[in-house]
Amino acid sequence: MGNIFDPVYRQGYMEGYTKGFDPLSQEYVHEQNCTAFYTGFECGRSDYERLNGKIKDGIPCRIVTKKILDEFQLAGMLGMSIDSDDFTTYQLNVIEEWYKSGIENYNVQESLSLLALLEEEGIQMM
Asked: pLDDT (tens digit, 9 = 90+) per residue, 91-109?
């Protein structure tokens, strides 16, 4: 792996990572920075398959990202129900781990305080 602190290398790496995480993207590389791109692409593809399953098994309707997992973890922490529609079995297994880690930190008082605050602001939770 090259020097990630080098702005040129980092740009190529991040471009490759983005392409690798997108299962529908076509590989496209700048000849000038191809090592960084391919390193980023491999890392992005690895992260995609870790969260969503192998591409050869098909591309799911909904793509799981770190942000989505954080939202499921927060839902577990607040004791909220989750929407699991359109996720594959593989994805649901990944989501379940994050949700469970949120449940382990569930605090009824925090949940009630949040709901009261949201109600004060006129925000309804279902």
From this structure: 999 999 999 988 887 777 7
Residue 23's contacts (CB-CB under 8 Å, 6 or more residues apart) are 48, 52, 55, 59, 63
Q: Rounded to 5 degrees, what angle do the CA atoms 84, 87, 92 make?
A: 75
- Specify whether the CB–CB gap between 77 and 106 falls below 8 A: yes
**SS3 for 59?**
coil
Residue pLDDT, tens place only, 8-17: 899 999 999 9
pTM of the complete model: 0.76
Opening angle at CA 84, ends 83 and 89, nearest 5: 170
Per-residue tokens: 20? 């690798």
